[in-house]
Amino acid sequence: RGIPQITGPTTVNGLERGSLTVQCVYRSGWETYLKWWCRGAIWRDCKILVKTSGSEQEVKRDRVSIKDNQKNRTFTVTMEDLMKTDADTYWCGIEKTGNDLGVTVQVTIDPAPVTQEETSSSPT
Ligand SMILES: *[C@@H]1O[C@H](CO)[C@@H](O)[C@H](O)[C@H]1NC(C)=O
Asked: Check: CATH 2.60.40.10 for 6-110?
């Protein structure tokens, strides 16, 4: 199937209430194409959360942002204020004619550490 046109990390781990960043790298030629971040294990049913406009302008929607760097052909997705329910299969992708390009990224969320306050207010 040839050399992959887009690559990303297999898994990315975040901490509940924290943030995480994902960097996906693409090959030369795709610089001005639209890049997207999609949620859901099934490719054709995944939900696009954010998409670039084909420029390097950052696009933010709710807790998720995407920014393309066309010079080093890397786009960065940031997810903030993480919740346990954000754990899922996501895709880094590039919109193009015909089938889009995409690669899966598994996002895992670790629970926030129990704070002193929560510990001391627990019944004994
Ligand atoms: C690409 O450049 C951006 C902006 O300078 C930087 O944040 C990012 O880490 C770089 N990525 C790579 C893979 O070099």
From this structure: yes
